[in-house]
Structures are given as C-alpha cells and as structure tokens.
What does this fold into?
Amino acid sequence: MRPIFNYIDRPSPIHRLTGATKLCCLLLWSFAAMTSYDTRLLAFLAAAGVAVFVLSRLRISDIRFLLGFVTVFMVLNNVLVFAFSPEHGVGLYGTRHVLFSLGGRWVVTKEQLFYHLNLVLKYLAMLPVVMIFICTTQPSEFAASLNRIGVKYTVAYSVALALRYIPDIQQEYHEISQAQQARGIEMSKKESLLRRLKAASAILIPLILSSMDRIDVISNAMELRGFGKNKRRSWYMARPFRPADFAAMGLCALLLAAAIFLNIHNGTRFWNPFI
Amino acid sequence: MKKSPIVTVVAIGIGAALFFVLGRFVAIPSPVPNTNVALQYGLLAFMTALFGPLAGALIGLIGHALIDFSYGWGIWWSWVIASGVFGIIFGLLAKGFGVSAALAEGQFGGREIARFNLAQLLSHLVAWGVVAPGLDVLIYAEPANKVFLQCLVGGLGNIVTTAIVGTLLCVAYAAAKPKKGSLKEEK
Amino acid sequence: MSDPIIQFDHFSFQYHAQAEPTLHDITLSIRKGEKVLICGPSGCGKSTLAHCINGLIPHSYRGESTGRVSVGGRETKDTSLFEISRTVGTVLQDTDGQFVGMTVAEDIAFALENDCVVDPALHERVEKAARAVGVETHLSHAPGDLSGGQKQRVSLAGILVDDVEVLLFDEPLANLDPATGKAAIELIDEIGQQTGAAVVIIEHRLEDVLHRHMDRVILMGGGRILADVTPDELLAGSLLKENGIREPLYVTALKYAGVPITAQAHPDSIEHMLLSESDKAAVRDWFCRTPPAPQSPERETQLAVKDLRFAYDNGREALHGISLSVRKGELGAIVGTNGAGKSTFCKLICGFEKQQSGTIALSGCDWASLSIKERADHVGYVMQNPNQMISQTLIFDEVALGLRTRGAAEDEVKARVEKTLKICGLWPFRSWPVSALSFGQKKRVTIAAILVLEPEIILLDEPTAGQDYRHYTEIMEFLLDLNRRGVTVLMVTHDMHLMLEYARRAFVFSDGRLIADAPCAEILTDDEIIRRASLKETSLYTLAKRCGIEDARAFVARFIDYEREAAHR
It folds into this structure.
C-alpha cells in the first residue's frame, strides 16, 4: 500500500516532466488558487486542471478513493460556512439580493450562493493538479525535487525518510495493536473516551519507544555512509531540466502573475459581479 | 548518549512518519460524530521536548502536510503552519521551563508534568486560537466565527490528547531511560 | 606480510553513562585481506569494538578512552568519521535501519550522493556494485518488496560503491533463514577475495560463520580479548564452552564419542576435518551404545486446523489449505522462509485475520465465532521483540494488564500475578521498573504477561532472536519448564539449533503449504524439504555420513536425545 504517492506508470508528457518542475508548478498553481477569489480565474484554473489531467492520461478510476474524501470535506466546509455565517457573502460583496429564507437568520442570498460557488471552484481548481502530482511523481524523486527548489538537503532528506518509513511504522503499529488487543485492550466505541485514550497509549508507548531506538540505528547508518559531509549532495533520482520543464514552470508562473494582477486591477481579491 | 546533527534529521523524518501514521490511520472515535481524536499532537509534544523547537516545527509541518496531501485536497496551509508554530513555541517553552533537559536525563516527575502541560496549553492556544484562524481568514477569507469555532473545537481536543498521550509518553520514556542506581532483589 | 589496516594498542574505553569500562586493554591488529571473526557473549564488548573500528567511537558516542586505535595508519580520534568511512564499510545488523533509500538503487547510491558524485559516474557505480552482489535486476524495488537476505545484499552493495579496505559485518546472520545465511557467508567470502579487503565479522553463531574459512577468531569476554587464534585452535581448546559460545554440533558429537579434538585435525570444517579410522569407529561405537530415548505416549489432539485458506485483499492467496493438528503438551516449531505463510497462519489462529475457508478447533470446539480477546484466553501470542509489547513501567503492572482489562478483581489480580512471577523467576524483581531488566528478562516479562491469562497454548515468534547462547538457553529452559507444566508451546523460528534441540516436532511451511510435519531430526536430514524450506542440513548428518553410519537420521535423533539427557542431568 502506498499511502501518499500513488504513482501510476502510464507514460505521458506530464510524467516526463521532472519532479522538481511538477512540485514548482503545484506550488505556483496553488498560490494562484489560494490568493484569488476572481471567479473567472478560478473557473479557468479548474478547466485547465481538467485538461492537464486528461493530458496526463489519468482516469477517474485511478483517484476514486481520494475523490470521496475531497467531496465530503468540501460539502462539510460549505455547510459549516453557511450555518455559521449566512451573511458572509453579503458582507464581502456589499449588496443583498434575498432569494428565500430557511427560517431564522438563515436567509439565502445571491451573494452567499456566489461566495459558495467560489469556495467550490477553489477546490475544483486544486483537485486535478494535486491528483496529477500524486499520480505522476515517483516518491523517490520528491526529496530531490524539494532540494532542487531550494529546501535544504537535510530537511529534504527528512521528508524522504518520512516517506521511506511510513509503511514500516504503519505495519509495526498494526502488529502491536493486534498483540495488545489479544490482551484485551480495546479502542472501540464501547469504552469511555478516557479508557480509549489509555488503551491507545498502551499501543503508542511501545511503538514510539521502539521508534526512538530506530532513530539511533538509522542515524548511525547514515553517518557511517557520509551523510552531512558536504554542504550539498547529489541525487540519484534527479533529472536534468528540458525545454518542456521550463515551459511548464513559465506557464504556471504566468497564472500566478495573472492572479496577482487581477487582485491589484480589481482593487480587491473578490471579483464582484453585483455592482 | 549520542548527539549529532544527523540525529535531528532522522528524528524529524521518523517523527513526521509517526505523526502521519497516527493522524491518518489511528482513529479513535470521539464523542462528536464523524470526528476522531487527534493523537498526533501528544507525539509531537513528546518529540519536540526531546529534540528541540526546530525538530518540532518541521515534524509538525511535514507530518501535517503529508496528511493533507494523502486526502487529496492539496495542503490546507493555515493549519499546517499552525502545527509548525505549535512545534516552535512548545519547543522554546519546554526548553525555557527546563522540561527538555529533565526529560533527556530521564527525569519526569510532578514538577515536569505541570510545566510540560502549561507549555503545551499556551502553545496550543497560540496555534489554534490565533495562528490557524487568523490565517484561515487572511488566506481563505472564510467567515471568522466559523473558523474560530472550528479551531476552538480542534484546539481543545488537541490540548486534551496532548495532556494525556504526551504526558504518558514522557513518563514512559523517562522510566525506560537507564539510570544509575542500586536496585536490590527482594526475597 | 602487509601492514596492519586496523591496530589497537592497549586501548580501553568507558561510555559516558557507565560506571565501568566496556573495553579493557585491547591490543589487536588486523591486516589487509585477512578474515577475522569476533565472537563472544552479549555484553562482552564486541559491538563496542566494532564502533571503535568504524569510528562511531569516539566521534558519535561520548566516553573516556586510553591507548590508541588506528585505521589505515591514522589514529581514529584525529580522523573524521567521514574519512574513516572511506576505509571501513559497515553492514549493520538491522537491515531495515540501514536501508535508508526509497528504492534499491537509491540506497546503493547513498554514499555516492553524499560525496556529490553526479551522472554518468553515479549510475555506473551503482550498477557495478549491484551486479557484484546480484541485485541488479531489483534496482527499482522498494524495501518492502525485498526479503531480509536481499536487503542485506543491498547494504553490502551500498558500502562496495567506495573502495573500502575493511568490510565490517555486525551480526550478519541474525535475521536470516538458514539457507540465506549460508549464502550470505559465501557472498561475504567471495567479495572479500575479489576486493582484497579485510573482512571482520561479529557474530556469535560460530558454526554458521565457519561454513567458509576464517583466518582468525577473536574471542571476547568481559571487555577483554580472551583468545586470538585460528578457528582450529579455538575448537580444540575449552574456551568456547567456558564463555557461553555454542560450539559446532559435530564437535560436540565427537566429544561425546570420546574423540579428542586437536588443531592439527582442522576441526573448523566438517567436510575437511581429518578423521582417522579409529575416530570414525569411536563415533559408530557411540551411536550403537547410546539407547534411543523412550517414546512419549501420544496425547489427545488439542488444536485441530483443517483446510485453512487465506487470501489478501489484493486476491493473492497466502495459504492454500493448511491442515495440521497439535497435541496437548507438545513443543513444536513452525519453520519456513519469509513469506511461506508462517506468520499468516499464526494471525489466523489468534484471530487477527479471518480465513476464507477452513476451520480451527480447540479441544473439539470450533473457533469461528470467537473474538481476538476470547481466543487469547486459550492461545497466548508473544511477539518477537519484547519492546513492542511492554507498555507499563512496572513489571507487576505489565503482567497484570491483561487481567485488569478483563475486569478481574484486584485481589485476584494480585494473587495470579504473583503466582506467575514466581513461575517465571521474576519474583525477586517484582517492584523493579521494566527498564532495569536485560533483553532476556524483558522477554520473560512478556511471556509472563501472556501466561497470567492461563492459556493452554503459547505461540512465540522467534523466541530467541538476537540472544547469545547463554540467554538463549535461559529462555528455552524456561519454556521447556512451562511445557513440562502442561502448556503447549509452538514457536515460529529460523534457528536450526533451536528447532533441533528443543522442538519435538516441526511444521514446515513453503509457499503457503505445509510440506512436512515430522520430528526435527527427520526434517533436517531430508534434502528435498531442506531445499524447499530454505533450511540447512545439520552438520551432524554430514558427520554421520563421513563415519559410515547408514541411518544418519537415527544418528541425529540419538544425538538430540543424548543432549537433552545431558542438559538435565
């Protein structure tokens, strides 16, 4: 089981881009989607994301399990926003067009619906690119990519170690929890919360204390093989940039520039169709 | 016994992996429907006390970012940063209160428990009372009352789990640390 | 004679946190191209000696030292750890800890990356090292897809990318099955010859290392060097037994037969040892003289497993119909390679996983509807590493945990825990913190914590992994004692000696099937089973053949019986 990256080996132009390029593009893209509330830009990002998704030869079936999480999270967030702040859109856009009332203070306005549309678009603008990143980047290329975009190599290697040892730790957790269940330790709903937490500790304590030993062994092994010797290091998985890489990064930089330009041009982050 | 900068690099990596596994796969159902108790902050506090504020910040940042990533919605920066901020502040407080030094020596008694929990309380308050909601409003322009309530619920949960899991971990670690002393067999 | 590559000169070392020095007055030199085995019981200082060779002492561990250590002609305390690592390549015991890369290729490349080597040299050197150890077809595999033996090969390749002059192996056999261990020793020997590097192996499994020729054996004890001699000289002397190291089985057998062991006879290899006609006659004579042990009466079946099948979520079938029965009071071993289905089988018994079909019944009652917790009242499962089970700080609480979660009254808890602690020999330590115990004692605590629930069967995963002969004997004698009290004991193991010496019966798994269910002597003399289950034939078998004993199987069985008798006289 690959818990984070879900590399799908189905060669495409996107697969051929280096990991560093994809990481850089992901960051530029997400900053563009994050800073802007310009509906036109968000819609464009969502549409472009879908186009790139098709280009990378991925299928909906590849990412079905993740779509579920995102949908639930998105719906929940929208419901919460409306429940707590039904007038948030009115405050942002400065007008109030009432559509109908759900009773009490929960009045549905055009402004509020428009705000929700923007929230949903933000998810849709991010979703395809995140999926593309997860499915077309080799996990081993990721650390090299972080280092390439300027993260210190020791920190990049910490990330690599995390990715390397997640499956081991997951397995160890599973084994310890089974052995403890046999001794009668349960975390199910039948128990009180305090007892559940105590039960969890009976699993976590051996897991974490044995991880402390693991830290010692790994750092010895790394030290004995010269980790930290130089100010920089090379990466086996690093690949040289090609013209396509520069083009991709350039395009994403343009998107971010567009987002910033629109924010300045509109005088606000919110594109307002109501005035 | 052993202290080198590489130990910190490894501790960050393993810490983030543990943070991820606890946050993503270890679900303890909480009394509120559809939510789970976040155990990873107990771990984060323990590792921060042991390996310092920098390690704490990076374990929080990397671990939380990986969790977000694995759900597929990208990275919810405001909360990821808040986890990192918790690591820094708690690390500094734990150092300042002398908790880190005591833990490294295998000392974790009543005094340390009180200070550890004071430090985690303050750090969680800053992280979930100020940083996370502030950034949510600033970056995502979400309604203030909604994010404050969300952060309040999350933050309170984190304080409780850190108090229980974090304290238990520190006590267990201190007890497992070999100390000089004379143990006598009882007949 | 070439200059020494490693030189210790009246060297003593004391760890910062310890009250006593760990190494006392070590004087030792190892030359290029030499093959040296360092052995000794746990706590004898052999790992510390390894740390001194690879530079972790003094560069990573704090402590006080006197005397000098030099590697490659330079004193280690004046040379950086990185410099030393260019001369000394270390393969650690924990192959998962050493495997830091996400894939085989990246792990091999690790040292080169740290040296900022770039392509094309980077890829070329990785490929060359991978070919040297035979993992070149697995370059893109993740560690999770490799067996223990393959991981160890990758670790070796990872140090071969540099032209090191010393290859240092810390307990290379600890996590390998017998056949893989044998292959590892052969590979180490070949690599040593090809590179001309000095080979230093730290290991307490003497017989397995001596599968290939070693130039010298250094025996350590109490932080001192007790002997620095050829293997032949060591085997001819009596130091091994006195210091808790297992001597090769064929040597023990020859001694039983009254054959004197001399260095001139080259006892370091059963194939090449000089055995005179009178020696052979003595062995044959001993065989005829020793009566077979009386057969113990057959007891009723306790655990009956019928046609058990299991497949993972991805559809891959891990068990293809296992049927076996375990009799009451039996002491059995479950053996086979990694992935043969041993641990899956145990998980199904304990209820951690659910079988697709087949039945498990205990004393005639079907277990299908029983939960993990309910099964645990009958079958106790002890994990390999006690640190993975212990969650309480005090021994009493740890043992009491299972009773308390079952809601037993505190009086009863006290009574039962105390009784169990007495049985397990932990009574004198009852109020100690768990952390004050040795590894072997911790293992006892985990067994006690299972035993307190009074199961009829205990199931142990590698009960003696990582233990030296003395602790190993201690744990096994304890289990034997429990067994005599009527507890059925089943152990999953890679250790051939363990199986041969203690188990009455072995269940051999291979590729998800049970390929043999027979007395151990029978299994370890059957070529076909040995090959399929990645076991290794016992040297007793070879000895019997060399002495012209037709029924080698009976000879092995006779030896085991005699040993057991001898142990309990």
